[in-house]
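Students often ask why we bother encoding 3D structure as a string. The short answer is that it lets us treat folding as translation between two languages. Here is a chain of 277 residues written in the first language.
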Amino acid sequence: MPFTNIQMIVMDMDDTLLGADHQISPENKLAIEQAQAAGIIIVLASGRPTPAMTPFADQLNLNNGGFVISYNGAYVTDWSNQQVLFDTCLTKYEHDMLVDAAHAHQSNLHTYVDGDIVTDALNPYTDIEADLTNMPIRCVGDLKEAVQGSVPKVLMVAAPDKVKAMSEELKTSLGGRFTISISKPFFLEFTNQQVDKSAGISVLCSKLGIEKAHVMAIGDSYNDLTMIRDCGVGVAMGNAPDDIKAIADVETLCNEEHGVAAIIQRVLRSQQVAEQA
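And here it is in the second language, the structure alphabet:
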């Protein structure tokens, strides 16, 4: 495993960097600080909206040379100056198409407008998203009427077995138009076809002059699949499903066992050995 050449580490947040308490453990924070001190660039990559990533990016001092990939790759932000390097959203037409698809599948749907989670029916899954992101919920009578512009992403929310079935069906009927992925088992996420976490990493690699072969990507779920597959070292968390582990180069401990810290320490030890050789 080419740990000695890692120049950038990209990590998912929920169920990867964060524990069940939705916090960064002291072990993970220390390892990230050590990686930063060694000159490794740290990137957070999440399906979360940018505002829901801000406290964690600040806690990790990403203002000193780090980056944030939010909305599953719809936005890429240089955290040192808050400059948005890339943004590709869904058009209103695409949003309205997904509203119709959600209604046809008797699924709830929500999106994001002006810092709010916007939905046309209060439901427990949108409550979960509000709890994760600390963003307010705005319930509207008609989503098509309420959303008059582009949106970064749309979520269809339902029980896990229904989400899995919808994912398989909609990837056939709509997959040519959208990037479709499951983040949490009850979240089916839709972004612009050009958008995913791997594409966001490509934006950063181009800007920084780093080859993707020198990037480590750490994740646990299906919206992490492309970055785990495409980067030089793809890492699956111990709590990842087996089909995500199957495409990874290496597996680390689960998020409750500080798996991010464990794999970063392996990288740092490898680089120290290489320097001493």
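Translate back mentally: Residues 3-87+195-276 form a domain with the Rossmann fold fold (CATH 3.40.50.1000). Keep this in mind for the problem set.
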